Amino acid sequence: MNELREGLSADRWIRLGSIIDHFRRTIRETPVVRPTDPGEAKSAVQQYNFSRPVALDDITAQVVRMFRDYSVHVTHPRYFGLFNPGVREASIVAETLVATFNPQLAAWSHSPIANEIEQHVLRQFSNLLGFPSTAAFNFCNGGAEANLSAMLVALNHQFPRWRAEGIACLKVTPTIYVSADAHDSLVKAARACGLGDSAIRRVPTTSPRFAVDPDQLELFLVEDLRKGWSPFMIVGTAGTTSTGAVDPLRTLAAIAQKYNAWFHVDAAWGGTAVLSSTLRREVRGIESADSVTWDAHKWLSVPFSAGMFFCRHSASVGSTFSIHTSYMPTGSAETVDPYASTIQWTRRAMGLKVFMSLVELGFDGYRDLIEHQAAMGVLLRERLQGQGFQVVNDTALPVVCFTHPKIRQGQVKTEHVLNTLYSRGRVWISDVRPTGYPEKCLRACITHYETDESDIECLIEELVNALK
């Protein structure tokens, strides 16, 4: 009986592996999107009332079918949407192993190897950022959590009484300076820290780069200091969501030093540029940051979630998050207990998928992948301009914002273009209105390492068709 049970289990994993392999091999034959009525998706789920058991093989097949039919397939080479990448096979294997062993990373002693794997990977990335060997770093759920971590550490670093007494003890109004196109997770972080929306000062950008204007930033700082406010944090973005803009990081670092402000770089997407000697110059100045947000689940092509937080001030990180309780194992000076050095407590091993992908590819392999995607971005710009489209943004990163005379003249709305594309299901893009730009434009981002010339041609063909 045991042998039969083991045989059935082995067959199940073989079948599941075949399903995954088939989906990955035939992804280009699958529509990127299939328009779905909310009622249709609800009905697909609500048929399960949990009143009777369903065989695991049956529910597995049914779930595969639901995900296939009712999803925008962000792992598709013709998904040109937000920063949702195609994922490496090594990272899928890693996620399966993590689910199997279920390591608990709150305390080093519970999973020494998973913790050391993460620390090793993060140390290598920290070196690439140009941070000192004493820097602190951790995996987290994503850029929002990393940005929140940065704000908390900055508060603790800049206002020593904050940790014990909270913001009520502050005799000043702390202010945070961000690009007009900075990610709104910073607003959520300000709310979570008790600072409120008014603490966020959005600085205008300049087009066509849509990067923060440092002259305007200084004007804001001088005026706010005159009001008695306390500028404690300046945030530069390396790869904005809307246009792929990179703020002038070196200039921002100098301004932060001049005004004694914490300099944080939100490089959730663009941080990966440090792996390429060609693209690295786009993020010059990141090495001067006090802290950095970087998401592996964006341009490093691993499944969600795998955010990363880096900080050059390890003592401030420890002071912000350290806590000790009798029910947790006692740590040591040679190890890092994540529960006492991050905002998290119990969590899964997020870093294994990054480790396995990095070991499989090496830094050179990753460099080739991101430089290929950047080259596809260049090709897309060229092909769009050749078809009469106008490229709106100026960035070396593979985000392309564009419009067309028919859109600018009001003959066609971006919504019509998108609906036409989605109804056909061959490609997926989005629209956006960059801050300071007079109207919505279309936005395409190369998010898959296998996107090639044929996929670019397909996008061009679909866009031309949608404008007819």
Topology overview:
Elements: H1 2-25, H2 38-46, H3 56-69, H4 89-101, H5 112-129, E1 136-140, H6 143-158, H7 162-165, E2 173-179, H8 185-192, E3 200-203, E4 205-206, E5 211-212, H9 214-226, E6 229-237, H10 249-258, E7 262-266, H11 277-280, E8 291-295, H12 296-299, E9 307-311, H13 314-321, H14 352-386, E10 390-391, E11 399-403, H15 405-408, H16 414-424, E12 430-432, E13 441-445, H17 453-466
Parallel strand pairs: 2-3, 2-6, 6-7, 7-8
Antiparallel strand pairs: 1-9, 4-5, 8-9, 10-11, 11-13, 12-13
Helix pairs in contact: 4-14, 6-8, 6-13, 14-17
Keywords:
single chain; 468 residues; alpha/beta; Aspartate Aminotransferase, domain 2; 7-stranded mixed beta sheet; 4-stranded antiparallel beta sheet
